[in-house]
Amino acid sequence: MYDTLKMWLPIEEIKDSRYLNRVPTLLSNIGQTTKENGIEYVSGSLDNLKISIGQTGISINGSINKFFHNDNFNKLTRQETELSINKLSDILGINFDNAKIQRLDISHNFIMNEPAENYYSFLGECTHYKKMMQPTSLYFQNKLKTLLFYNKVAEGEYRKKDIPMVWQNKNVLRYEMRYTSRLASQLNMPIVMAKDLYNEDMYIALIDKWIAEYFKIKKNKLLKPKSNSMTSKNAKEFLLSALVEIVGQNEINEIAKQWKTNFTTSKEAQRFKRDIENLKGLTEQSPLIEELDKKVARVKEFYR
Fold first, then answer.
1. I need a labelling partner for 287 at 20 to 30 A (CA). Which of 1, 63, 296, 297 fits?
2. Residues with Cβ within 8 Å of residue 36, at least 6 apart in sequence
């Protein structure tokens, strides 16, 4: 479930006084950087991981999943997370168990019935997130974290990565949650360390949060079959519902946002938004969302 992470191991946790000279010899693509505060860092690569070494400590940034599996299509289990941290520690000769986790991505790839892009239009607004639609992806973002949906195979092909055989010619939708800031405070912890990532209770709690954030997203609905006994009012409601389905509920919501200052009060703007979301014609759940809901919920089977 884990993918990209950023971790920092301060000098106090490093028992090897010669690490400044020794670790760079284990890396490739070596370069040197001087920060604004005058502190010098030597940077390099260990497989896909970016590593910076300085007098104050060591920074690691990259996909821990790819570091272990050689790609990030496969799921990194809790046990494999421990093995990957141990692998990194063994190679560099430094124990990273107490490294501080500053960024963490949790993700899963789903093989779907239809292309990934077909599911985006049914993912509506999400409270406390700004929604951003891209040509091949969908973002929900705030200052602390990002929810991201995208076509994993298309992304791999764009980056000219080798696609594992089992994923080729498949509809692969990736759902990713990125903790980009203040990870510890979001998890109500004083600090999150590398060893916490493979603690069973912590692992289960993070998966639960990943699932819960998905289900906070409002799901756009489909147009139900037309009634054979409509009144004029019913017909108007159905016509508006049909327009919403044709244009797309996400696009209608964007139009409503642009009209926000045209309403007499903010309360009226909210009422209009609710009326659109609760149109009588838009009452059927999309089978695509039913499929995605079930697959996200089923990830609990991977707790261990």
1. 1
2. none
